[in-house]
Amino acid sequence: MPRHDWPLPAVLAHRCGGTLAPENTLAGLDAALGNACGGVEFDVMLSGSGSPVLIHDETLERTTNGRGPVADTPDEILRALDAGAWFDRRFAGEPLPTLEAAAARCKALGLAVNLEIKPSEGAEEATAEVVVRRARELWAGASELLLSSFSERALEVAATLAPELRRGLLVSAIPKDWQMRCRRLGVVALHVAHKHLDATNVAAVRDAGLWVVAYTVNDPLRARTLFEWGVDCVITDRPDIVRSLRP
Ligand code: G3P
Ligand code: MG
């Protein structure tokens, strides 16, 4: 199958700004751009009010001063949370971003986006429905958006609701039936934990016409090797040191 050129930057900052700023925050987006990184990955989940917000964990404790499940917390409570102080006092008062706020900041900064649909358990369809509809509006006609998810159900919903939006399947190791799964889901990329990649399986995925995205690559020498094997994109916590190795 013919491969097209990878449409996003070859290095994406993980969870907005990697370890340069609190994860999944607007400050992280600023940090990515401030380190000459032209694109980011971030995680999107539904709040208790059904709104898409940027957060990785299903619960608030690790990355905010809130408590309890994100899926049980209404927007008015989320709006008052501090998502920056846990990381460093310099970031105190940093809000937990809505998808709308993140999209606006990415557009203002010119950042490309890999939006990971991150449903809380049991909310795969509902999360995909809301996130995909909103993403379609927010990035209307733009080519610098790639959806991804570990949830195949979420990717199915995305394919139905917005077939024009590119999608990638997230896996840890490459499953034996990856070709069948990717074909069924109509994804254009396979996102793989980098420790499970080697020259042979990268070539096989590329030969199938798919882009290869490696996460989370924080060692510049490892990034160089992955690019030499033909990996199209690395997602990194250290855009400040990995970005210089992009092809
Ligand atoms: O999309 C790559 C990576 O973000 C997937 O893992 O747990 O950091 O969201 P996680
Ligand atoms: Mg992620």
How does this structure look, described?
The chain is of the alpha/beta class. It has one domain (11-236): Alpha-Beta Barrel (TIM Barrel). It contains nine helices and nine strands. The chain has a nine-stranded mixed sheet. The mean pLDDT is 96. Bound molecules: SN-glycerol-3-phosphate and magnesium ion. Residues 41, 43, 116 line the site of magnesium ion (MG).
Topology:
Blueprint: E1 11-13, H1 26-34, E2 39-46, E3 52-54, H2 75-78, H3 99-109, E4 112-117, H4 124-138, E5 145-149, H5 152-161, E6 166-171, H6 178-185, E7 189-193, H7 199-207, E8 211-215, H8 220-229, E9 233-236, H9 239-242
Parallel strand pairs: 1-9, 2-4, 4-5, 5-6, 6-7, 7-8, 8-9
Antiparallel strand pairs: 2-3
Helix pairs in contact: 1-3, 3-4, 4-5
Bound molecules: SN-glycerol-3-phosphate and magnesium ion.
Keywords: Hydrolase
EC number: 3.1.4.46
GO molecular function, one term: glycerophosphodiester phosphodiesterase activity
The CATH superfamily label reads Phosphatidylinositol (PI) phosphodiesterase
CATH topology: TIM Barrel
Secondary-structure element series: EHEEHHEHEHEHEHEHEH
**Could you tell me which ligands this complex binds, including any ions or cofactors?**
SN-glycerol-3-phosphate, magnesium ion
Tell me the total number of β-strands: 9
Envelope shape: globular
Mean pLDDT: 96
Structural class by SSE content: alpha/beta
Main sheet: which strands, in order across?
1-9-8-7-6-5-4-2-3
Task: Tell me the domain tally.
Answer: 1
CA radius of gyration: 17 Å
Low-confidence parts: none
CATH architecture assignment name? Alpha-Beta Barrel
Could you describe the largest sheet, including whether it forms a barrel? 9 strands, mixed
Regarding CATH, which class?
Alpha Beta
